[in-house]
What we know:
alpha+beta, 10 helices, globular
Amino acid sequence: MVQRLLEPGEIETLDHTAIPRLLLPEARSLFTARATRLRQLANNQIKGIPVGETLSGYLNMMAALVDAQAAVIRTLPPETFALPDAAGIQMAIDHHMPPLPVSGQRPPTWRRVFDAILDQLDSLAASQPQLAVVLAELRSLDTAQLEGCADAVLAELTEGVHPLHAPFVAAALQVMWTMRASQLEAPRVQPLVTNTLCPVCGSHPVASVIRIGGQSQGYRYLQCACCSSEWHMVRVKCSCCESTSNIAYQSIEPEGGLPAPAEPVNKANDPSKVARAETCDDCHTYRKIFNQEHDFYVDPLADDLASLALDLLVGEAGYARASGNPLLWFNAE
Length: 333
């Protein structure tokens, strides 16, 4: 998430006792910043998140996909991302339900976003035959097949979706929901009964992040995998089962090897604290946590995608991912 810097005088007007419960996405800058981050990760420019050669190529491909997301936001008309009627949004808020739920009927304009993303990638496909094949397959899907793929992506099902198709479908859905989420008023959105799902759309978080700056200083937020909204959750609490006991933090040792509990380090810019896995021995799951105090430009989704080495090592230790990353289809052959 890209944060707006406060102007002189604004800081003094803040209520520093209030924790912002919800941070809505800055949709028109988020994807551009994410693409830049993905390329930095692919080039091994981010200390604390080592990337191998094979993954590097995939990250560069996803950076191109994220560039396409940014481009369609600039080119498609605003009505593509129109919000539901005000009465429906208010009813959801009154009942502590997501105002933009991913369940149920989708706005048909999401398919316009999908087509536009594929069009943006055509120039790249001219020099990458494998991408050209995937784009042709995606264009050959009829409406029922495409909607079925979207259902599977949003439900994180491995059945009914091709692992090479899923990131492109997910990318269109992300644009649709992120643009709509950015139009809401954060104070109006109410928390859900469970704090483990996005209060805007009801999706799972992709990862969590410790933010710096303004009223968010030092607080932990979960970032939605679909609409990119971030909502507050206290630190040292499982983001899957909400247990506050048996929580540990694992990081990759500088020389590689098994993950080890990260010891407290007070100094900023510590590479070992940029990316960690928050593990829970009650539900035996984990979700990654990224720390802006140690890298100002962390992007939870991009950094999660690039830190697959941490997934492998924590998985070998017996923990399961609490939820997936929409740009990589886990558990698919």
